Amino acid sequence: MNIFFVLFLFTQEAKKSEHEIGEEVIKGELKYKIVDPKIYLQVSLNPFAPLDSVISKEQYIFDEKLYSTIDALNTPILYLHSEYLRMPLVARFMYGSIALFIPRFEKTVSSWELVIIDAKGEVVRRYAQRGMPPPVLSWDGRTDNGEMCNMGEIYNYVFTAFDAVGNPTRITGRAYKFNGVVYEEKGSTIIAVSANALFNENSAHLNSESEPYIEEIANIVKEKFKKEVVVYSYSQSEELARSRGEVILNEITKRTVLQNKAVSTAPRFIPGLLPKYSKIEIVVQ
User: Fold this and answer.
1) What does R_g of the chain's alpha carbons equal in angstroms?
2) Record's InterPro entries (predicted)?
3) Strands 180-185 and 94-95, bridge-based pairing
4) Which end of the chain is more exposed for a tag (fewer CB within 10 A), N or C?
5) Is residue 269 pLDDT above 80, yes or no?
């Protein structure tokens, strides 16, 4: 053991003399007991909370003073039922973009034009620009005048690209139809849906396909509500407009917890309006 120790020192000394700056590596073992307590985090997750919310029939109590004075930022929390009641479903409304166009050209394009036309062949929206088109073109459902297009109408599009000498390449799209759209305007959320998607023809009775639309409408109201909801019903018949508006109002009331004065309906009687252009508009503020 003593001989080994001497040789070890000699080796280290000889190695150290070869360099101005040396390093030594010391290896060994040391027992150390950790006495610091581990951090314990208890996750407060109740997997039965969504079910409890429904079974307990959780609701809130209001009075007139509360409705008129409460801070608008807190209103959705206080006035609406549990967030768990926002049922997950497949969206039937268009949000933001009605249609996306993705043009691809192998050759250089000098200029291009995208025209969206209705069932009558009339142009409702035109996009045009020099040079190559952008990677994606989005149509928000509005006309060139900024008005929202009719729900339930059939639309088509024609995309034309011109080369350097003016030769056109024309691409005609397929017919496109949308029954509902959700958009923002002047601080309000507007839900517009074709009456034919909700009601039987010339009737105020809901059809067999209306349930998913109404559930989605209720979800949007729960998410966006601040102070009031107004249901506008457009029809060629004054009585039909009134009846349909009341039906939708009742369906929203059944699915949300809102004070009576926070929800109202306003019929919009338009003589000569074609039945296919009849619609329901819910304005959420």
Assistant:
1) 34
2) OmpA-like_sf
3) parallel
4) N
5) yes
Domain at 99-177: CATH architecture: Sandwich (2.60)
**Residues 6 or more apart whose Cβ sits within 8 Å of residue 146:** none
Q: In this predicted model, what pLDDT tens digit does every residue of 183-236 receive, in sequence order? A: 998 889 999 999 999 999 999 999 999 998 999 999 999 989 989 999 999 999
Task: Please state which of the four CATH numbers 2.60.120.1440, 2.30.42.10, 3.40.30.10, 3.30.1330.60 is assigned to the domain occupying 64-93+178-284.
Answer: 3.30.1330.60
Q: Which of 74-78, 166-170, 276-280 is predicted least confidently?
A: 74-78
Q: Is the Cβ–Cβ distance between 109 and 131 less than 8 Å?
A: yes
pLDDT for the residue 29: 78
DSSP string for residues in 62-97: --HHHHHHS-TTTHHHHHS--GGGS------SEES-
